[in-house]
Amino acid sequence: MHWYTLTPLDVLLFRDAKPFTPGERAWAGSIFPPTGHAIAGALRGLLQKTIALTLKGPFLCREETLYFPRPLNYVGTNSLAPATWLQQQADAQGEDHPCQQILWDRRQPVPLLPAEKTQSPEDLDAAVYRQYLPYSSAMKLLNSQALTAADWRCGNGERPQPWTVETRPHNTLLEGKRQVKEADGYFVENAIRLDPGWSLAIAVDEDTHKKIQAQGDPLLLRLGGEGHRALLEASEPLNQQWKEIQVQSQNNWQQAANAQQHPPEQRRSLAYLITSGVFERKHNGASTCRAWPWEWKLAHSVNINQNPGPLVSVATERPVPISCRFRDRDDGTKSIPAPQVFAAPPGSVYYLERPAPLFQDQATLDNDQPNKVHIWRQLGYSELLWIPYGASIHD
């Protein structure tokens, strides 16, 4: 993979997946960071070709450093852990834990509680916590090192969320009159302005990289709506950062997978979702999305006839609506909106008794037929980093 930065020359417009027609609805919602579909469309528009490509990202970037979404298994700077794991830890130490009084629906993931029994008051206000962690902090997590409060503090000139939402009104006037058209009317949408020094970062496959380099470096490309442009530029430092992250993540996976005969604590893993995760499956003819992979069954079974799986608990928040378009097979200039999907947000964290693969990662099925859902991984969705259980925060 080859890494590039996308530096906006102005504001960016990325509408969300809600259907919108001026006159029917007065507010056009927005989404940021953009989806993999938006990035793929921009690259294909640049190359003027319908190419098969593989993406990583998009992530945020500042001073040639990758930034990843804040893990959602933290409250402030305090880490969370499944109630059952905390209870097992307390039992091993001959202590009682308040979680033994909890009643919860065993058809759902285990509730999460603060990992530490006592929580010291935080001097930091929530408004100054980083919502995106730099590469160095992500590597600390992957290396089982505890994050400190300093890792969460915003640096000089840095804001928790490094962009500003600008509300932009749109009017369509009647020709020759100073009146707004009834059909189009008045509507409002949000534009995104990245803070100075920030950009987006993406990686592309070798074939796409060669096609881009054949046109020059850097390049201007249209990104998002209204024809706004960004500067596409290769970034060698990001290549090395991503390589180190991937190597450590795979090492963590392998160590946990090789510890199947060891105590449970040594094989427990956290799967850290760093891009939107699309987990969709058909049930009774209807497609259903949820916040964790369907192939990851719960580790606690409701009855003895169920086979336990690896998933213990999930730290997540509201889903991200995503929509793309279906192109006409005979006329590539025509398209219709595709059904919406609802993705798990970046930063979601999954607690597993053992590492488990994603069905989306398989390019082909057992019958050698193409795996249709592999396209989500090719567009950068559902990217996971593997963290050993136990990485936590201490001030």
Account of the 3D structure:
With 395 residues, the chain is of the alpha+beta class. It has eight helices and 23 strands. The strands form seven sheets. A seven-stranded antiparallel beta sheet has the order 8-4-3-11-1-13-12, sandwiched between helices. Strands 17-22-14-23 form a four-stranded antiparallel beta sheet. A three-stranded mixed beta sheet has the order 2-10-9, with no helix packed on it. A hairpin with a 6-residue loop joins strand 12 and strand 13. The C terminus is likely disordered.
Going by helix content, strand content and strand pairing, the class is alpha+beta
Helix proportion range: 10-25%
- The percentage of residues in β strands lies in 25-35%
Task: Report the major sheet.
Answer: 7 strands, antiparallel
**Total helical segments:** 8
Q: Enumerate the spans where pLDDT stays under 50 for 5 or more consecutive residues.
A: 391-395
Shape: globular
Spatial ordering of strands, largest sheet: 8-4-3-11-1-13-12
CA distance, first residue to last residue: 37 Å
Q: Rg from C-alpha positions?
A: 23 Å
Q: Tell me, rounded to a whole number, the average pLDDT.
A: 86
